[in-house]
Structures are given as structure tokens and as C-alpha cells.
Amino acid sequence: MCRMAVTGEVNRKPWRRASVGLISGGVLIAVMWASGRAARATEVPPLAGPALERQQEWLARLRLLPRQVPSEVRAGGSLRGRLFKPSAPGTAKKYPLVIYLHGGGPRRDFDHLLEGNAPGFAYGIGRFVAPDTQAEHPCFVYAPWSGPQGWDEKNRRSVIKEIQSLLAEFPVDRDRIYLTGQSMGGHGAWSLLTEHPELFAAGVPVCGGGDPSKAARARTVPVWAFHGTADTLVPVQQSRRMVRAWQEAGGNVRYSEYQAGTHAGTAERAYCEPDLVPWLFAQKKNTPQK
What we know:
Layout: E1 17-23, E2 27-35, E3 42-44, H1 49-68, E4 72-74, E5 80-84, E6 95-101, H2 123-129, H3 131-136, E7 140-145, H4 153-169, E8 172-182, H5 184-195, E9 202-206, E10 223-228, H6 237-248, E11 252-258, H7 263-270, H8 276-282
Parallel strand pairs: 3-11, 6-7, 6-8, 8-9, 9-10, 10-11
Antiparallel strand pairs: 1-2, 2-11, 4-5, 5-7
Helix pairs in contact: 1-2
């Protein structure tokens, strides 16, 4: 079911543990992880037949939700962004916070941040603000906008400041702050995880890359990374190197590598993964879950 992706790009040591799960439509795949051991890539075959049809149906829904679900513009700091709130949040309960970093498409126009098709590709927002997700895992979702400069160091510092503002204003659970991003946002996610590991309970970088030499700083943060072998914009080796560095540092990482997965196709499929939401919301600072 699974095999090494590229000899020499991933370590040859065996996985410590593996689980088998279903993806939509009944296609059986293996999702593998390791803790404190070097990791192999998990190649996931392309979807076909009913499984592909169901994903397309799900994507059609996710593309619409970012604009359909009410949100508010936050523009008090150096970044503008969109904040989605759980319905009627009360002060007696703390809620998780999901930070979503967009890719390169929306950076020239704030209004594209919620666009489900090109250039926004806001599938990640759609998945976390979806009514079924919010019913089971009510949470705040914050999507900052980078502007033309992308997720550079200045903007990453601004994201951290905005998180601190959200913590001060709303009943956010400090132990359940999650970070995800795709493409340019995947790079931003890897960077923020290594720069501020004390802040995040888990990370989901999609089609991104980072500095492997900094992975040891964030080895306590669980990560589920995604990439596609046919990605011509961000080479798949970038995720492989980060995953390998995370494991060599003794970290906890899951890695799904989609066979023949393109840049856009990987983001589409990653945010439709059935196990993604339950895995993410099971993570809590200092008590990572497999």
C-alpha cells in the first residue's frame, strides 16, 4: 500500500507505527507516522471513480463557504484579515483558534482572500468554517492577508501580534492554537512553527517548505504535512526535507504525499482528508495525539 517516495530523500528506517483509514468513497489508504524516528514518505494513490466524484462534490461546497459563512474584517493592526467566530461564543468556554495562511494568489487583492476558485483557492477556510466542522469542533478561524510582500518576516511578526490580540479579546484556548497554510502559506506555516513553537498546538503545511536546520526548535509541535509528486511550483523535495528534519530532531510528524498530485490538486485533496479535522482538534499543547 505504501512505499518510499524517493531513495535518498527519506530515511530508510522503518515506520514505528501505521494506521489504515478510509478516504471518501471507500478508497483504502495507509496513513503513517513516527515519533522520535526518521520517517518515510507515504505515497497516496490518485482518487478515481466514486471517491473522486465525492471529493469534487465536497470541493464545490468548500469553495462557496468562505463567502457564505459570516465573517468580520479585522484591520486594527498592521495586517488586515477575516475572522470567523463560533456561533454565540460564551465567556465560560474556551475555543480553539485556527490560523490559515493563504497562498500567492490573493496577495494582490484583499477581496480574493475568500475566493474559493482561482486566485484564492480558499479550501482550507471552507473546511474549518463548514457547519459540520463547527458543529463538532466550534472554533475561531482567522485568515490574515499578506498583501504583495507575502509571508515575509515582518508579516509573520504581525500574525503573531494579531494572535495575541485575539487571545486578549476572545475566549480562545491558548493550548489549542492551530496553524495551516498552502503554497506560499505553507512556507509561512513552516516558518512560524519553527519561530514560535511555544504558541502552536499543531501545524498543517500544504505544498510548502522551510529551513530544515530550524526543525529542532519545533520538534514538540505535531505536524501533518502534504505535498504532491507532480507539483511544478514548489518541488516535493521541500516537504520531504522538512519532514525528515522534524523526525531526525525527535519530532512527531505525519506526511501524506499524493502520487501525481499537482500544486492545486494537493491543496484540494489535503483539505478534504476525512481524518484531518479530527486529528487537528485532538492536538493540545504538551499532549500531542497520534
